[in-house]
Amino acid sequence: MGKKKLESISLIMDKNSRNVTYCKRKRGLVKKAIELSKLCNQYVYMVIFDKDKQRMIEYNSNLDFDYRVIGKLAT
Fold first, then answer.
1. Distance from C-alpha of 75 to C-alpha of 69, rounded to nearest angstrom
2. How far is CA 9 from CA 5, 6, 18, 49, 59, in A?
3. In the prediction, which pLDDT does 70 show?
4. Where does residue 54 fall: left (phi above 0), alpha (psi -120 to 50 degrees), or beta otherwise?
5. CB 30 within 8 A of CB 46
6. What does the pLDDT profile of the chain (75 residues) look like in tens digits?
7. Top-level CATH class of 15-74?
8. How far apart are CA 61 and CA 12, in angstroms?
9. How far is the C-alpha of 13 from the C-alpha of 5, rounded, in Å?
10. Nearest to 52, CA basis, from 23, 10, 9
11. What is the 3-class SS of the chain, one letter each residue?
């Protein structure tokens, strides 16, 4: 099955299709974050919260760079 062009972005009503799309896009987003970190020598901290499953996915490119450091940078 090939890629489909999105006419307009809206909520996917079919729960199974929505879950498949979420998993694939989440994987792609994390992959891009890893590439950005490695290719450009940048620190990346990313959080994705799944409100349906009440689960949080967290990616940080450096163990010393986490939410506490982000909080200090924002102030």
1. 10
2. 10, 7, 12, 20, 26
3. 81
4. left
5. yes
6. 677 777 788 999 999 999 999 999 999 999 999 999 999 999 999 999 998 889 999 999 988 888 788 888 876
7. alpha beta
8. 31
9. 17
10. 23
11. CCCCCCCCCCCCCCHHHHHHHHHHHHHHHHHHHHHHHHHHCCCCEEEEEECCCCEEEEEECCCCCCHHHHHHHHC
| Of 35, 31, 65, 60, nearest in space to 47 by CA | 60
How many angstroms from the chain centroid is the CA of residue 71? 19
Decide: pTM greater than 0.90.
no
